[in-house]
Structures are given as C-alpha cells and as structure tokens.
Design goal:
The chain has about 300 residues and is α+β, with helices and mostly antiparallel strands. The protein has helices at about 15-55, 60-65, 70-85, 185, 265-275, 285-300; strands at about 105-110, 115-120, 125, 150-160, 170-180, 205-210, 215-225, 225-240, 240-250, 280. It has six helices and ten strands, in the order αααβββββαββββαβα. The strands form two sheets. Strands 3-4-5-9-8-7-6 form a seven-stranded antiparallel sheet, covered by helices on one side.
C-alpha cells in the first residue's frame, strides 16, 4: 500500500522527536554533570579543608613551645649588659702594696750639727728631756764627763725595756752632749776616769777610731747589792766644741735565782756602738761667722 502525501499536507518531521529526545538527554546530562561536578568540588574542598586543618593543627603547639625560647633569651641579652658589666668594662683594681717603713730613723740637730741613725723601735728624747737614766744606783749614774762645766744635752736614744726578756737587763741608751767651753786639748780628758785597775789607779783614756773619726774613750762601772751600771764615754773635738757620746747599760739583780740569766753585755754595746758609728757632724762654724757678720752689720745700721 502506497501512501501519497499531498502538497498541502504537512510532511511529518522525523527529526523533531529525535531532537527533543537529544535536547532532553543533553539537558538532563548537563544537570547531573553539574551536580556531580559540584559534589566533586564540595568533596574536594572538604578534603582540602580537612588536609589544611590537619597540617595547620600542630602549628600552634609548635609555636607555643618554641616561642618562650626567644622571649627568655631576649631579656637575658637586654639585662645582662646593664646588670653584669663585662670584664673589659670593669676598672682595673690596683693593689696597694703597703710601704715598708725603714728600720732606721735619722736624727739631726741644727744647733749642734749632729746627726745619726737609730732603730725605729728605740725611744728618742732631745734637749731638756735628753737626760740619760739607768736603772742602777741612782738617776745620776751617767753624768756628763767634761773637765769644764757648760755641757748641754742634745739627744738620747733608749732601748725598749723588754729588749732582753729572761735576763737581768734593765736599761740601755746612747747619749750626745756638747760643750763649747772646752778647748781641744781639754776635750781629750775626762772628769771621771776608769778606776777599775787592780791597784785602784786611774786608767788613762784610750784612743780609738770610730768610723773615720778619732776619739778618746774611757769607761766607768758602779754597782750596789741589787743594781749595776756600766758606761762608756767618747770625746771628739769638732766645730770648735767638744762632743761627748755616752753608751750606758743598766742591769738589775745578780741572775742567781728564778732562772734569770746575765744579759750579753757585748751584744748590747754592739747595738749602741752601731749608732755611734753613724754619727756625722755638719760644719757650722762658717754659718755662725756669717750670722755674726750679719748681726754686726745690723747693729751698725741702728
């Protein structure tokens, strides 16, 4: 059977249904794809968020642990220079070494020109107080030994009282006297001479040399039942005056009881002689002549 279509009739469109089905399928597939894509993106985003959280989660803990280290170190560096000065900044401390005082002291007298050295621990007295005293028979056991009056005491140096413990030592001294009323010839003599000769005859003065100075020397000894005194006198003539040096030693007791021993007299006098050897006399005659000339000129002007 043959079907014949007329021109006025509409030709059936076979493509229309197909296109509708294809468009519908395409439209339907596009939505699914979009939904799938959206779901995929959502899942991917969720995974990325979870992954990011898992990576970022421990960071605060790490920061919390490591952050105190720099914070604690920073104050240390900031405070240390202020509170603890470095060795270079500290001023160098100079240790003061105590100065040792000399063992000997120099004594000098401008009026007589006498100077000498004596141990610092010895006691010095000058002028009116320079009166030697021995713990002996009396206070006048060491008088001046000039043949003429007019002697003047210059200075006395005494040993400490406890210089020789356990012995009969009582006192010892070195004394200087000056007499300008005595001539050079008279200066070689003494008012009191040594009488310790066995027959009681006086012993002449002895010529000795002390240092570079020639001197006349004599000695004296006196004692009673308890005390003893020994003195040595030296004379020298200089500056128009007679200089007298007295070395004295006083002892007490006979060292027979209580374990007391005799003091070594030679040792004591050796110390006194050492002072005598240091004596120097400064020339003062020229100075006196100049002073006299000045006084004369001043008197003439008046």
């Amino acid at each position: 059977m043959t079907t014949t279509w007329k021109s006025g009739d509409k030709k059936p469109n076979n493509n229309a249904p197909n296109n509708t089905i294809s468009g519908t399928m395409l439209s339907s597939w596009s939505r699914q794809q979009k939904l799938a894509m959206i779901a995929s993106f959502a899942i991917l985003g969720l995974l990325l968020a979870v992954s990011a959280c898992s990576k970022q989660g421990p960071k605060p803990a790490l920061v919390g642990v490591s952050s105190p280290a720099p914070s604690s170190a920073t104050p240390a560096t900031a405070v240390t220079p202020a509170t603890t000065p470095t060795a270079a900044a500290l001023p160098a401390r100079v240790k003061k070494t105590p100065k040792k005082r000399p063992a000997n002291v120099t004594y000098s007298d401008a009026n007589s020109g006498v100077s000498f050295l004596y141990p610092r621990k010895f006691a010095l007295a000058s002028r009116d107080k320079a009166q030697p005293q021995l713990a002996a028979v009396s206070l006048n056991e060491a008088p001046m030994n000039f043949v003429q009056p007019g002697g003047v005491a210059v200075a006395t140096v005494a040993l400490p009282g406890g210089s020789y413990p356990g012995t009969d030592f009582a006192s010892a001294f070195f004394n200087v006297n000056v007499n300008r009323s005595v001539s050079e010839q008279e200066c070689s003599h003494f008012a009191f001479v040594d009488t310790r000769n066995a027959d009681g005859e006086p012993v002449d003065a002895e010529k000795v040399k002390i240092g570079s100075t020639d001197m006349e020397m004599t000695s004296d000894f006196s004692a009673n039942a308890i005390k003893q005194a020994e003195t040595q006198y030296y004379h020298s003539y200089e500056n128009g005056a007679c200089y007298e040096y007295v070395l004295g030693l006083g002892t007490e007791g006979f060292a027979t009881e209580g374990g007391i021993e005799h003091v070594n007299r030679d040792e004591v006098f050796a110390k006194l002689e050492k002072i005598l050897a240091s004596v120097k006399i400064k020339p003062i005659e020229a100075e006196r002549s100049a002073d006299s000339a000045i006084a004369t000129i001043a008197a003439g002007k008046e």
